């Protein structure tokens, strides 16, 4: 059973550690909205993301990266809306962290 | 694949726009939307009383057009709507309020509709936050 986790809140508002603790080895994380702020290299959130096993895929919504002038670091795959839909189909469940 | 989409944020939150773009992509990809469910502040998306600033997207209008165009099953949580003053003609009459702030294509119903949507769909995708 694999799960795609959707994060939309800033990591300063919704600490990542509680989320990451529940990620399975084959789960994936899709960052959208202010959750993309976790991709600021050097931030605490970014360091936490580095601790994830290599099997956990990381995605970020492309338009939210652009809106924040963030480049997708290595390991992070930018996705548009059609790709977002296909990811939902690809994983067994979708868990939105509200 | 069958999708159910739930929205917890109001029209002026980025999550509302994100949910609508996602819903459009679901249909464009040939998938089906079995139900849209609007909960908590998400019920404001069904309000026809909100006026968006001229230089901002009118997400409530965009949702209304999208739902009407595709004749989607779109349920607004009735308890969340009542407490926020989002009333259709029937509820305005029932509670003796002068203002009617929602109507077709929206349907006011209970939280059980979200549970049912989760059973009917292959995927339930919830949008909220910022």
UniProtKB/TrEMBL annotation, chain A:
Coiled coil: none annotated. GO terms for biological process: tRNA wobble position uridine thiolation. NCBIfam families: sulf_tusB_dsrH. This is tRNA 2-thiouridine synthesizing protein B. SUPFAM superfamilies: DsrEFH-like. One of its GO terms (cellular component) is sulfurtransferase complex.
Automatic annotation (TrEMBL), chain B:
The keyword Glycoprotein does not apply. GO terms for molecular function: sulfur carrier activity; sulfurtransferase activity. It is found in: Cytoplasm. Keywords: Cytoplasm, Transferase. InterPro entries: DsrEFH-like, Sulphur_relay_DsrE/F-like, Sulphur_relay_TusD/DsrE. The keyword Ribonucleoprotein does not apply. Belongs to the DsrE/TusD family. GO terms for biological process: tRNA wobble position uridine thiolation. It comes from Pseudomonas flexibilis. This is tRNA 2-thiouridine synthesizing protein D. One of its GO terms (cellular component) is sulfurtransferase complex. Coiled coil: none annotated.
């Amino acid at each position: 059973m694999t799960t795609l986790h959707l994060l939309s809140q800033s990591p300063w508002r919704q600490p990542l550690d509680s989320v990451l603790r529940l990620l399975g080895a084959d789960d994936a994380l899709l960052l959208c909205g202010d959750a993309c702020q976790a991709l600021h290299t050097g931030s605490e959130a970014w360091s936490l993301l580095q601790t994830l096993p290599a099997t956990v895929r990381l995605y970020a919504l492309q338009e939210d990266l652009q809106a924040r002038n963030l480049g997708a670091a290595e390991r992070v795959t930018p996705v548009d809306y059609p790709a977002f839909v296909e990811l939902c189909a690809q994983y067994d469940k979708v868990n939105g962290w509200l | 694949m069958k999708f159910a989409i739930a929205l917890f944020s109001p029209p002026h939150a980025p999550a509302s726009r994100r949910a609508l773009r996602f819903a459009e992509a679901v249909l464009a990809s040939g998938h089906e939307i079995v139900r849209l469910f609007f909960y908590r502040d998400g019920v404001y998306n069904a309000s026809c009383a909100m006026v968006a600033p001229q230089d901002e997207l009118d997400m409530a209008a965009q949702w209304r057009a999208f739902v009407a165009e595709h004749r989607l099953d779109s349920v607004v949580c009735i308890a969340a709507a009542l407490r926020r003053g989002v009333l259709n003609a029937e509820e305005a009459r029932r509670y003796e309020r002068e203002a009617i702030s929602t109507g077709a294509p929206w349907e006011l119903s209970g939280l059980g509709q979200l549970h049912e949507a989760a059973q009917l769909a292959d995927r339930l995708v919830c949008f909220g936050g910022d």
